[in-house]
Amino acid sequence: EVQLVQSGAEVKKPGGSLRISCKGSGYSFTKYWITWVRQMPGKGLEWMGRIDPSDSYTTYSPSFQGVTISADKSISTAYLQWSSLKASDTAMYYCARRPGIAAPDDYWGQGTLVTVSS
Amino acid sequence: DIQMTQSPSTLSASVKDRVTITCRASQSISSWLAWYQQKPGKAPKLLIYKASNLESGVPSRFSGSGSGTEFTLTISSLQPDDFGTYYCLHYNSYSGTFGQGTKVEIK
After folding, report:
1. Which of A79, A103, A95, A100 is nearest to A33 (CA)?
2. pLDDT band at B12 (very low <50, low <70, confident <90, very high)
3. If you ran DSSP here, which 8-state letter would residue A100 be given?
4. Are A59 and B46 in contact (CB < 8 Å)?
5. What's residue B6's pLDDT?
6. Distance, in angstroms, between A101 CA and closest chain B CA?
7. Does B27 touch chain A (CB under 8 A)?
8. C-alpha angle with apex A91: A85 to A92, nearest 5 degrees?
């Protein structure tokens, strides 16, 4: 069974750093890209960026140049990282599996809620 | 950047109604469009890929059409379980862009 299991909810202070994770199982991790999507409270979905775990090639939306997406294929895990959080980073973050260029994201993680508050 | 505009923002319909949601791209995107359904507190679920292909396991009352700049998602006979917010997504090898969503309510 294909699964993407994300790390648990986080509460952080502004200016702090954070890395959340997304572990894939039930499929060959390096044969699929991982996408990250943001959903701010009560708002729509926003595409942040994606990584190809086979070679760590990464692309970002211009709106999300301040985050870092990475992956460790040895443990089938992708990451989304911030070095200096802002209150506006408060949101649910989803990872999703993408079969490749010609197909959209098919399996999704359960989401990680990030709350940034002083 | 390509912009995706969905309409309507919300719609209320009765069970067995035919429902249509439109997504327009700011420039031609060929058929690189997907449709997702999201229910409150849940991750999105893929319904349609490459504009008109039904994802495995998705009921046949869902269908997609269009190419270029105009696309539609149709629910042929609305069911109680079809409530939620529907999003279109333009995807290519470098990026993705979601529409702003259409909230579907059952009357």
Report:
1. A100
2. very high
3. B
4. no
5. 98
6. 5
7. no
8. 125
Judge: B91–A104 Cβ closer than 8 Å, yes or no.
Answer: yes
Q: Which residues of chain A have pLDDT under 50?
A: none
The predicted pLDDT at position A65 comes to: 87
What are the pLDDT digits (tens) for B40-87? 999 999 999 999 999 999 999 999 999 999 999 999 999 999 999 999
> Residue A6 has which token pair?
């994300």
Instruction: Out of A47, A94, A105, name the one closest to residue B46 (CB).
Output: A105
For residue A58, how many other CB atoms are within 10 A of its CB? 15
Q: Distance between CA A117 and CA B75 in Å, rounded?
A: 41
Strand locations in B16-83 (E): 19-25, 33-38, 45-49, 53-54, 62-67, 70-75
pLDDT at A102: 86
Quickly tell me which residue has 């200096």 as its tokens: A84
Chain A hits for B94, CB-CB cut-off 8 Å, are: 59
Model pLDDT, residue B1: 86
Asked whether the beta carbons of residue B87 and residue A106 sit closer than 8 angstroms, the reply is: no
